[in-house]
Design a protein that fits this description.
The protein is of the alpha+beta class and about 270 residues long. The protein has two domains: about 180 residues, PAS domain (Beta-Lactamase); about 55 residues, Winged helix-like DNA-binding domain superfamily/Winged helix DNA-binding domain (Arc Repressor Mutant, subunit A, Orthogonal Bundle). About 40% of the residues lie in helices and about 20% in strands. A seven-stranded antiparallel beta sheet has the order 2-1-5-4-3-6-7, with helices on both faces. α6 crosses α8 and α7 crosses α8. The two termini are about 35 Å apart. It comes from Pinibacter aurantiacus. This is LuxR C-terminal-related transcriptional regulator. Keywords: DNA-binding, Transcription, Transcription regulation. One of its GO terms (biological process) is regulation of DNA-templated transcription.
């Protein structure tokens, strides 16, 4: 079966120009026609997502069968999905800002970026289902500033037994037949959020880089005593006992995410 990503880019290359608000059905029909098995799968459906608001204004017919009980207004205005509140917090505070960050980087080719992440949403029966969402930019209108994503929802409830959210960002190769990993992050939405100060984040980044307390003090123009106090406070806030536990926890919680993304985009740029 032809992959969704390949299908989408094939359509993009063939200049499928549509008015997003008046011809949404036409666009989705063309995509589903080229990828028929995916479109008809009862646990998977297509959507178009507004990039600025991260709201859905089109979900195909399968969505209403799976997600009935969510808000599907007439005439396709923004659709409200009932996300799990803990997952929604991770999406709004960590994943969506990360996507925005990557998209703002000039050397990251927006039309080649794809993002995948899972989350919990309530189904028509009132139970929580786990879905993975795969999205790519829809560039039919403004390639310089794309405003919409096109992608798929797939129900993975029977394949996943924990509540961790996995976020993956990739960049497609020139021929769209392979992709390179930019970042992979794992979040635990049910754990209490850890709030570190800007200075503590800077110290944490230095710890992750393998610097000693003396080296961190020199780099940040602070006293050794100040850095040691920061280290103690960070360990206390994160409930970790040593550097190894701290770095592992920080990666899982996305505390080092911005720094990792900067390094990833720097590598992609060939700097």
């Amino acid at each position: 079966m032809q992959s969704f990503r390949s299908t989408f880019y094939q359509l993009n290359e063939e200049k499928v120009h549509v008015d997003l608000h008046t011809n949404t059905q036409q666009l989705l029909q063309e995509i589903s026609g080229a990828n028929n098995s995916l479109a008809k799968a009862p646990s998977s459906f297509l959507f178009i997502l507004d990039k600025n608001q991260y709201e859905y204004f089109y979900l195909d017919g399968n969505a209403k069968n799976v997600l009935a009980g969510n808000h599907f207004p007439e005439n396709n205005p923004m659709i409200e999905l009932h996300w799990n509140t803990d997952d929604e917090k991770v999406l709004l505070e960590k994943i969506f800002p990360t996507i925005d960050y990557l998209c703002r980087k000039n050397h990251c080719e927006k039309d080649k970026l794809t993002f995948s992440f899972n989350f919990r949403v309530f189904s028509k029966s009132g139970t929580e289902r786990i879905f993975i969402q795969n999205i790519s930019f829809l560039n039919n209108f403004s390639k310089e500033s794309p405003l919409h994503f096109v992608g798929t929802f797939t129900d993975i409830t029977h394949f996943k037994y924990d509540n961790k959210i996995i976020f993956v960002a990739e960049i497609n190769s020139a021929d769209n037949h392979s992709c390179e990993l930019i970042t992979r992050d794992v979040f635990s939405p049910d754990q209490n959020t850890v709030h570190l100060t800007k200075r503590e984040i800077e110290v944490l980044k230095c710890i992750n880089d393998g610097l000693s307390s003396k080296q961190i003090a020199d780099k940040l123009f602070a006293s050794l005593n100040t850095i040691n106090n920061h280290r103690k406070n960070i360990l206390k806030k994160t409930h970790t006992k040593n550097t190894s536990e701290l770095i592992s926890f920080a990666l899982k919680q996305g505390l080092l995410q911005v720094w990792l993304l900067v390094d990833s985009c720097w590598l992609l740029a060939g700097a």
